[in-house]
Design a protein that fits this description.
Helices cover 45% and strands 13% of the residues. The protein contains twelve helices and five strands. By secondary structure, the protein is of the alpha+beta class. The protein has a five-stranded antiparallel β-sheet. The protein folds into two domains: 175 residues, GAF domain (Beta-Lactamase); 107 residues, Arc Repressor Mutant, subunit A. The longest helix has 31 residues. Strand 4 and strand 5 form a beta hairpin.
């Protein structure tokens, strides 16, 4: 007869872990709660940096807390939320409607993501090699994203790290629900829909004066880190057709590399008209040079 009183623990119930759980519980409803969650996660796996933000469908992500080594970050703190977030696999998963859960970059990234310009600028150039996200759905249009990261100086996350985090997940998500209940009014006061509308307009209309609708679909997959093969699978066509589209995109935009394409897309975001169908590329190219945003790629040298 099985022993129904047997208790199985995958994590050692150490005094450090119990103390971190107690502090997280005590901090519910206060400004310290997010920090206490990061501290709790740090007791079960090594964490080099991390933070918390709220994802929205109708506005840009709202950063709540971010821990990082400033000496390893060469980009401005607001570079991510100024528009490039739309290319992040974690954000794209949220936008696709994924449920609450733990998402490891290794499992959700497109096949060419680690060779993409987005990865070069927003991961490797800020000293990151890996990330894990705890996504808690607030509703269909918003979610809390608690993320932890590993530096390129250290090993990437392992399956054992994911297992440990999943053991804590029910406790963290229950605490998140109570914390949101107590603080949701404050979250609603901080909105920024204009930036997100410009980002969405750039996705919808970038280079529409030069490219076909299908080419613009292929372009977005390109800058998101999808290979020709995976793009063909998503768009239900052949890899050869996608390669031809890619050649046409480079020719029509007069560019010779992924870096140029990525830079052009990002720098067009401020020129997007949120409520229209004008091509932000045309507005960018017709604006005086003094009005052009600086290129992120110009400030981020390739690391050897």
């Amino acid at each position: 007869m099985p022993n129904t009183n047997q208790i199985e623990l995958c994590l050692p119930l150490s005094s450090v872990l119990v103390g971190a759980l107690a502090r997280m519980t005590a901090a519910i409803g206060t400004l310290d709660w997010f920090e206490s969650v990061l501290n709790l996660l740090g007791t079960v796996c090594a964490v080099d940096s991390g933070g918390a933000m709220v994802y929205h469908r109708a506005q840009r992500p709202r950063r709540i807390v971010h821990r990082f080594n400033a000496q390893e970050r060469t980009l401005p703190e607001d570079a991510y939320v100024s528009g490039p977030y739309v290319l992040d696999p974690h954000y794209q998963l949220f936008a696709a409607g994924c449920p609450s859960g733990v998402h490891w970059l290794r499992d959700i990234a497109p096949d060419d993501f680690f060779d993409s310009e987005y990865y070069r600028v927003f991961y490797s150039q800020i000293g990151l090699s890996d990330s894990i996200e705890l996504l808690w759905r607030i509703d269909a249009d918003s979610a809390l994203n608690i993320f932890i990261e590993r530096s390129i100086r250290n090993a990437k996350f392992q399956n054992s790290d994911l297992l440990a985090i999943n053991q804590l997940l029910p406790v963290i998500f229950s605490a998140a629900a109570k914390h949101h209940e107590l603080t949701s009014a404050a979250l609603r006061r901080d909105t920024d829909t204009l930036t997100h509308r410009k980002v969405q307009n750039t996705i919808d209309n970038f280079a529409r004066s030069l490219l076909t609708q299908r080419e613009r679909q292929v372009l977005f997959y390109m800058i998101s880190g999808y290979s020709s093969a995976l793009t063909a699978q998503r768009l239900k066509t052949s890899e050869g057709t996608i390669k031809n589209h890619r050649k046409n995109i480079h020719r029509k935009l007069d560019i010779g590399s992924q870096a140029e394409l990525f830079s052009l897309f990002i720098n067009c975001i401020p020129f997007a008209a949120p409520d229209g169908q004008a091509d932000p590329l045309q507005r960018y190219q017709s604006a005086p040079a003094s009005a052009h945003a600086f290129s992120l790629l110009e400030t981020v040298p390739v690391r050897s």
